[in-house]
Amino acid sequence: MKHPDDDNELFHRLEAEMAADSGGEVVDLDKARSARAESADPTTRPDADRSTDSYADGSGDPTVRVMVDQPTPTATGPGYLGRLRGAQRRAVVPVWLRSVAELRTATAWVARHYAHAAGYHALRAPVYAARLTLQAPTGAARFVGGTMRWVADREGEPVRLAAVRREDAAEYLKLSRQRDGRVRLRTLVAVLAMFVGLGAALAMYVLAPGWLQAVSVSAVLMALGYAGQQADAPVIHRAVELPKAVKLTSDIVLRALGALGIPAINQAQAKGRDGFEFTAPITRDGPGWRAEGNLPYGVTVTDVIERRDRLASGLRRPLGCVWPEAVPDEHTGHLVLWVGDQDMSRAKQPKWPLLKSGSVDLFKPVAYGTDQRGRWVEATLMYIAGVIGAIPRMGKTFLLRLLLLIAALDPRAELHTYDMKGTGDLDPVGDAVSHRHAAGDDDDSITYCLNDFRALREELRRRTKVIRSLPRDVCPESKVTSALADKRSLGLHPIVIGVDECQVLFEHPEHAKEFEEIATDLVKRGPATGIVLLLATQRPDAKALPTGISANASARWCLKVMGQLENDMVLGTSAYKRGVRATMFAWGDKGIHYFVGEGSDARIVRSIYVDGQGADAIGARARRLREEAGTLSGHALGEAPEPVTSAYDLLRDILAVVPADEPKVWSETVVARLAELREELYDGWDPEGLAAALKPHGISTIQVGRRVKGKVVNRRGIDRSHITAAIAERDGKRDAG
């Protein structure tokens, strides 16, 4: 509780201090400023400490305020030329005009639009003529009635009646005289026009040829019919219904940003500011509008992306039309807002060039989808390992099938396709061209897939030896090229492996570790040897996509997912924090995804939709290409692979080369002994490769110390007891199964 005397205590103190200050006087402000300036300069005070590091400002005076932002007569930062060098020049020629492909596409769209309109109206021309002829009497009556009302000056009658109601005689007489003059002039004009018209009609009837008379009568009938049509029943309808999109303006953008509920933007707008700094005019960008600018300090583009649904509500546009984006080379508060005329999922895509004809070179980029602006997005399927993730029913399998169809159109490519879901979605590729193909998760399919993966690992090792043996001028970059793939004698043709619902393999109770080990090796070393692994799953978590695989996949396609964990498993660590969020896609955004690859930042892409019949047609065309090239093999020819019971047992091979009297051995010693045991399998292994191969078995390398020339040397190695324990655990599970 506050004591009553506390309120007076402050006043008592002030009175005491004022009484004690006996030197009170009026201060001359000019003199005080001069004195303060002199005291701030140590050269004007002989008794001042001239040590420049005694105080923060170097003046030696503790009473001097340190100016954080020092006033300077000229602007700081780069000079005029420096700012010009760092300036970002806008393109003189638009991007769509510089691209021959986009210009050709736009020209084709315009040509088809007007060709469709011309054909539409040409087919209905007889109907138009009949309706206009039937409406001609009504139009003639309207024309005569309108002419008579014009001659009689009926439009001025309400004004004259108003003067009569006010009993304003002077104004009425003035209006009457004006009306009489108009009527006389208009009557003269009407009579002259009638005589001229009748004379012209008579002359045409007598002198003009029959075709000109027919054209003239038809033109008069059409004009009268057009005048006689009802407002709610037009004779000519639109051939094309254009989408009605409101022009994007700064007011609309500011209104939408203010509706997001971001405090910094709302506070700025409450103080009369915009809350968004436009750095470029709002312009048309493809089939939509583009706005660009800076958000308030502390607000990031991610904050806007998180509220994309609110942004769409503020813009009064469908969610699929609104796409806020960050600019990689700018700060995190630089927003690019693209607002399309149509929902991206419903906008008509251009015709895919490979739908009806054409072949593919997998070493070159191939268009597989379009971005928000309708521009083609390309992907190169060589030198990558790819991951596709999404919740069910969002187009994951169709996207994988599309990529496999693209690979099938390269007759050199050898395809291995596995539909672990078992619904037959990959059959158009598998039955037509695949070297190995299986569908389902039964034991036979799993065994078939496991044997193929083992064979692929041996093929990987064979390819590494071939590449290493080639002369430097033939293989300068130590990887497969298109020229090397053409040399069939080398056997370095592209191999593309597609697995749908890959979690079936990596979560298998018996073979999961071996599948993970082989797939990890294919992801890491396969791209350089011409082997491409594409994995698709509807459960993008650590079990369905082991981290050794997801972390090394250079191409990622992420359709709609439900949470941050799944988003980052597919798109990479911290993608969610950077604003790359596949969680923002709506249920209707089938086939729309984030694509990370081709050395660029994440892009939003809508893949080309190829239905079952289209996929069968492309598969048949790819088969014909292989038949002509003589590269059709395996499953497509009805050939069954040779059964493989086991490729090798790494753990037992390690026990064979590490005797019981050596409990701990360096990894380099182990790989050397393994190479002596099975040269065809282990030749070229290094300690890092051994560690990676042991990881799926739950075994980690350790530090092993050995005395060499009187000194203890520590290197990575293995503990033999860990190997025996892992074998015992594995065999125990097999016996239990």
In short:
This protein has 737 residues and is an alpha/beta fold. Helices cover 46% and strands 13% of the residues.
Molecular structure report:
This protein has 737 residues and is of the alpha/beta class. The protein folds into four domains: 100-227, no CATH class; 250-340, Threonyl-tRNA Synthetase, Chain A, domain 2, CATH 3.30.980; 366-637, Rossmann fold, CATH 3.40.50.300; 650-736. The chain contains 26 helices and 17 strands. The strands form three sheets. A ten-stranded mixed β-sheet has the order 6-5-14-13-12-7-11-10-8-9, sandwiched between helices. Strands 1-2-4-3 form a four-stranded antiparallel β-sheet. Strands 15-17-16 form a three-stranded antiparallel β-sheet. It is elongated and about 135 Å long. The relative contact order is 0.06. Mean pLDDT is 84; it is low at 42-56.
Keywords:
alpha/beta; Threonyl-tRNA Synthetase, Chain A, domain 2; Rossmann fold; 4-stranded antiparallel β-sheet; 737 residues; 10-stranded mixed β-sheet; 26 helices; 17 strands; single chain
Which secondary-structure class do the elements indicate? alpha/beta
**What is the typical, i.e. mean, pLDDT?**
84
Percent of residues in beta strands: 5-15%
DSSP summary: helix tally: 26
Give the tally of β-strands.
Answer: 17
Please state the overall shape, judged from the principal axes of the Cα atoms: elongated
Number of domains: 4
The CATH class of the largest domain turns out to be: Alpha Beta
For CATH, the homologous superfamily of the largest domain is named as: P-loop containing nucleotide triphosphate hydrolases
Portion of residues within helices: 40-55%
Low-pLDDT ranges = 42-56
Order of strands, main sheet, comes to 6-5-14-13-12-7-11-10-8-9
Q: Based on the coordinates given, report the CATH architecture of the largest domain.
A: 3-Layer(aba) Sandwich
How far apart the termini lie comes to: 77 Å
Largest sheet: 10 strands, mixed
